[in-house]
TrEMBL record:
Keywords: Metal-binding, Repeat, RNA-binding, Zinc, Zinc-finger. This is Splicing factor U2AF 23 kDa subunit. A zinc finger (C3H1-type) spans 5-33, 137-164. Residues 5-33, 137-164 form the C3H1-type domain.
Amino acid sequence: MNDYRNDKSTCTFYTKIGACRHGEKCSRTHVKPLSSDTLLLPNLYQNPKLNKNEGEELSQKQIREYFDHFYKDIFLKFASIGEVDSLVVCENENNHLNGNVYVKFTNKDTAYNACLDLNQSWFGGRPVHSELSPVESFSDANCRAYETDSCNRGDHCNFMHIRKPSGQLRSSLYRSQEKRKILRELKDLGYEIGNDASETSKNTNPNPSINSNANNENSDSIDSKSSINQPTTSEPTTSVAAVAALFK
């Protein structure tokens, strides 16, 4: 099934990175997958380091807060569609990788449905483009020199310059996702979930449901209006549905 990856006529960069600087003019073949658990949303992240106004200087704190809000918004959108395995955002300074977002779901069916959903969405006032990506390993696609601030290839680097969210934010998002997964599994088993874990009990009703208060209390959340100067909270504070204000 993956024989094309060893074919010399296939573009290695497109296969490994999901993007090629030569685009459609590349002399080698870009094999677009018919199924994949990974999606690419090209140029979705508007890097403030590259899109700032002339003469404007942004502090590292402002850039970090801006990125954390962006990461939280898109994670919640993806998680509302299906379980997110991993999420990567590129901040390369070249056109084919700049702002690329890659999301890997736990299965191919979820990724396919997410692709259809996202291609009917808007984010930050711009239409979203989503496509199935051949990328299998973010580790192989990652520029290790960039992690140590030693990449000297600049905009000529064809590997991912990955921007990472604050550790506390990332942990809280994945913990919340896991919590929702457990609640869904308990619901499927016929349990009714109270306002806290100690109130979980077997539901004798033939049509069990999760208490709406529990949904609000345990769901991920964001502030629907992200800005560079807005402080990042360590824990989400409103429901997942609030992300719909950004994805319309």
